[in-house]
Amino acid sequence: MTISLTQEKVKELEKIALQIRRMVVKMVFTAQSGHLGGSLSVAEIISVLYFSELRIDPRNPNWPDRDRLVPSKGHCAPAIYAALALRGFIDPECLTTLRQLDSILQGHPCMTSTPGIDMSTGSLGHGLSIGVGMALGGRLKRSNFLVYVLLGDGELNEGQNWEAAMAATKLSLSNLIAIVDRNRIQLDGPTEEIMPLEPLMEKWKAFNWNTISIDGHSVEEISDSIQWAKENQDRPSVIIANTIKGKGVSFMENTHKWHGRPPTREEYEMAIRELEGEIDE
Amino acid sequence: MEMLGTRDVYGKTLVELGRENENIVVLDADLASSTRTSYFAKEFPHRFFNMGVSEQDLIGTAAGLALAGKLPFVSSFAIFLAGKGWEPIRQSICIPNLDVKLVATHGGITVGEDGASHHSTEDFALMRVLPNMTVICPADGVETEKAIREIVKHRGPTYVRLARPKFPVVLDHTYQFQLGRSFTLREGKDLTMIATGIMVYNCLRAAEELDKEGISAAVVNMSTLKPIDVPAIARAARQTGAILTAEEHSVIGGLGSAVAEVVSQNCPVPMKIIGVDDLFGVSGNADKLMEHFRLTYPYIVEGARQLLGMK
After folding, report:
1. Whole-angstrom distance between the N-terminal and C-terminal Cα of chain B?
2. Could you read off the pLDDT of A223-233 as tens digits, one per residue?
3. CATH number, domain B3-168, options 3.40.50.970, 1.20.58.220, 3.30.1490.10, 1.10.760.10
4. Which residue in A111, A112, A130 has the most chain B C-beta atoms within 10 A of its own C-beta, making it the best mutation to test that interface?
5. Which of B25, B61, B90 lies nearest to residue A132, judging by beta carbons?
6. Superfamily of domain A7-280
7. What is the pLDDT of residues A170-211, one digit of tens each?
8. Could you tell me if the ipTM is greater than 0.85?
9. Cα(A115)–Cα(B252) distance, integer angstroms
């Protein structure tokens, strides 16, 4: 695999990931509602996608030939909203309105409310099928856009994913890239206790996908694996991004308790101190 | 009497539309030969996608195609499309308000011998309750062609329910289908029968029988169940003072409920709802099942008499 990012770009993407984390914590604290654990685990993935990979245009969010991101794990909406604000799709001021009545930022992604959101999600298990349809549509339209689907690991319990996995290889959708946020924790506890997914790589391989496992907090590995997926022209690719749920805030890491609860003021201040401390280092 | 299969007409119309509009793509879930999307598949193999027996993925893929700028028609049996597909239809088609045409065949109990698992007496209720959804059930083959052509012009989630057996043709070829508008097939003074699908024909027969008894019954074809034709219902209630509805669907949540929602809040008059009682289907041939579930014209006549007694 080739190294695709300069050291300067690596630093920039890491800095943006931290910014996303701070914005996520602030948004969920302000809203007193939202999903921290699974928003913090995808910060590097979102940073690489929005600031290095996606061919998108904030001035023309509905550009027909843009790359698409289907946020299948819709509960990571705060991380995506942060990226949309940093990328100029939405006014950063509106981040304080997350989950409030009349806000353009719904609790889960809503394409009719928020510029830059490519599909409404929230109910788990739908996104990969959407990606299959988009990738197929792109091919029929002779457009060369890429379709990224961001999947949760708990979400893979849903059978529709595996229907879509079969369809994607039947249709040889090489323009489809799935990224699994493998943080190993779902709402009620560890994925391997609630509904074991392992051997996960072998499952995807058995469905005939190009399959790779990476460190989902390394912007270099995320970027390199996406280049690798793009080079594979015969079938869809899946990147299993091994991550830590709640990454970046010590007391939120690796626990299902922070799946869906907001922080108190004290917890919020502790979290921000940790995230700002990391920037100073 | 001319008989036409609504699904046969659908299959042929889809091929014609495919020639006129190259943006149309068709998806099926391993029932193409039954839903007649096989006709389209034969002429446009590169615009037809058989997604296998996986209705949830079928719906999601269609949504994705719409998001990429294609116009997808999606077909399966009514219970599998509306039933197994319901939550994906809600999340991935209705919430984002996408232009996807869901055309289900094998609605109701006239599916026949396959029995309860394959009958669909719940699909009107399931589809009608979804915001942004348009719901249509043509009365015959003539209306099927016009409705399928018309929904291409309408933007948004659309559900059309067709049937397995051939239906008697009740509309003449000059009939113009208008989305959201009912069509009065027969004028009458004593009551109005509002029907959909095969029950339009059965109501016309019942009206002839009632006529012999000196009862004058209007018959209205309510092929668009949603958005329902509120002015026509209010007018019927005012003019005839009694409304009977008839559908090949559960008496819960379908046409009868839709009409009752309008009547009770705008123009209260006595109503009688003819449909399948709160029961699952059983095996049998279509004609025998229509009799078994009391959907044939003598039961409509009986219902009309009861209704007039409440006036």
Report:
1. 35
2. 999 999 999 88
3. 3.40.50.970
4. A130
5. B61
6. Thiamin diphosphate (ThDP)-binding fold, Pyr/PP domains (3.40.50.970)
7. 999 999 999 999 999 999 999 999 999 999 999 999 999 999
8. yes
9. 40
